[in-house]
Design brief:
Layout (H helix, E strand, L loop, with lengths): L3 H23 L28 E7 L7 E7 L34 E2 L5 E2 L25 E2 L2 E2 L15 E7 L12 H14 L2 E6 L10 H28 L10 H14 L2 H6 E11 L1 H16 L8 E7 L10 H5 L8 H11 L29 E6 L5 H13 L6 E4 L16 H18 L9
Parallel strand pairs: 7-8, 7-9, 9-10, 10-11, 11-12
Antiparallel strand pairs: 1-2, 2-8, 3-4, 5-6
Family: Belongs to the 'GDXG' lipolytic enzyme family.
InterPro entries: AB_hydrolase_3 (IPR013094), AB_hydrolase_fold (IPR029058), Carboxylest/Gibb_receptor (IPR050466)
GO molecular function, one term: hydrolase activity
């Protein structure tokens, strides 16, 4: 059984959540096309591009018409070349750096947003003086730009000695109406996943209900996947332009070259261009975020080669927010379970689905309704995480069973004495069970993102 502290916190959590949901139902917000991605009561973590705790983060607003944004989590493992074989890792020599005329004995220390002073070279390692580089807006990192002096990591022009890592799109939970991609809890979880899985995590700040009802959150998830593809294509286009600058066909004058340079610098996200491999893309969804991940996976299957070079190779559904009109055994037995009971979750669905569309068998809510395309046999490998004391567990297991029937790799990890969001909720994030869950996810995910084949097995 969960501990006494978990039980007490659950009572407090449910009281606050019920109050907020009822307030939003009684005082509905006007439709807002731009939308919100975080609530005022949410504790948020500021982005830190200086590899604090081994992971650098950056926020990007990617849609001019909505509030859709992302937070990129870049592990420092991307700054080192990969080992050529599977032998035990050896100490890596620090790559030689080109001399910079700006280097001087009295160079100043760069201060991270946490207050610690550190030097960063082009690979982001400490102990070397800074060199000139570009940030994502094309201005020099050591020069004052629109937002002042850029103190974070920016890839070197050469990009030598770095690694291409798989990209993981992460969708946070919160019952459609709360949570955010930059919350303290989500920031901690994504940092953990980025390091354990050795991936670039892109946490999606999708629009929340009731300001933006279905299908806004689902469309935002798909927009980010398409944006990832555009980034990959822009990066390739930028490389091609750079390789022919000295050729006769491209000698059209300095003015034209300046336009090309400016366009490339402003449109290409350097962290993804230097370190992201979209051909190894994994989707990870938490609670209602798992519903979004499953939707995005289905749309990726339908898009097929039109999505190239992005390829979704696997997805992870953590205690998905599934429901249906015909109750399962767990929905009857555990209807009043910890943190998120069934009655409150139905309120959340009423805020997410419009009154005309509301149904517990809506395709967004019930993965087992007939006619929900594409055919399950085309779905990517799917890992499902469930908790023993979660009323939603049986339907998630049933969905996984349907995938296995058509030969999709779809294991289920069930955690004993666990509650809904046991690995992502703020007060439970540092428990041994939450750490073990993240490690288990990493073991399974690496089967599908490893460049050396399936040397990992479960």
């Amino acid at each position: 059984m969960p501990s006494v502290a978990v039980k007490l916190y659950s009572v407090f959590f449910k009281f606050l959540l019920k109050h907020r949901l009822q307030n939003r139902i009684q005082n509905p917000s006007a439709d807002d096309p731009f939308g919100v991605t975080s609530r005022p009561e949410e504790s948020v973590a500021a982005p830190n591009p200086s590899f604090a705790d081994g992971v650098a983060t950056k926020d990007i607003h990617i849609d001019p018409f909505t509030s859709l944004s992302i937070r990129i989590f870049l592990p420092d493992s991307a700054l080192h070349p990969p080992d050529p074989d599977s032998k035990p890792p050896r100490p890596r020599p620090v790559p030689a750096r080109r001399p910079d005329p700006a280097d001087a004995p009295d160079h100043h220390l760069r201060r991270s947003s946490l207050g610690g002073a550190a030097h960063f070279n082009h690979a982001g390692s400490e102990g070397s003086p800074p060199e000139s580089r570009r940030n994502s807006y094309g201005c020099g990192a050591d020069s004052d730009g629109v937002g002042g002096v850029y103190r974070g990591y920016a890839p070197s022009q050469s990009g030598g000695g770095t690694r291409k890592l798989p990209v993981m799109l992460q969708f946070h939970g919160g019952g459609w109406v709360s949570g955010s991609n930059d919350s303290v809890a989500n920031d901690y979880f994504c940092r953990r996943i980025a390091k354990l899985c050795d991936v670039v995590v892109v946490a999606v700040g999708y629009r929340l209900a009731p300001e933006n009802r279905y299908p806004a959150a689902f469309e935002d998830g798909l927009k980010v996947l398409n944006w990832l593809g555009k980034q990959a294509n822009l990066a390739e286009c930028s490389k091609s332009m750079g390789s022919v600058r000295s050729s006769a066909e491209f000698k059209k004058g300095d003015a034209q070259r300046h336009i090309v340079d400016t366009f490339g610098a402003s449109m290409v996200e350097p962290w993804l261009a230097s370190h992201g491999d979209p051909s190894r893309c994994v989707l990870l969804g938490v609670s209602c975020g798992a519903n979004i991940a499953d939707y995005v996976a289905r749309k990726a299957v339908e898009a097929g080669k039109r999505l190239e070079p992005v390829k979704v190779v696997a997805q992870v559904l953590m205690y998905p927010f599934f429901i249906g009109s015909t109750p399962t055994h767990s929905e009857i037995k555990l209807a009043n379970s910890y943190f998120y009971d069934k009655a409150m979750c139905i309120l959340a669905w009423k805020l997410f689905l419009s009154e005309e569309e509301f149904s517990l068998d809506h395709p967004a809510a019930n993965p087992l309704v007939p006619g929900r395309g594409p055919p399950l046999k085309l779905m990517p490998p799917t890992l499902t995480v469930v908790a023993e004391h979660d009323w939603m567990r049986d339907r998630a297991i049933a969905y996984s069973e349907e995938l296995r029937k058509v030969n999709v790799d779809a294991p289920v990890l069930e955690y004993k004495d666990a509650v809904h969001e046991f690995a992502t909720l703020d007060m439970l994030l540092k428990t041994p069970q939450a750490q073990a869950c993240a490690e288990d996810i990493a073991i399974w995910v690496k089967k599908y993102i490893s460049l050396r084949g399936h040397e990992f097995s479960y």
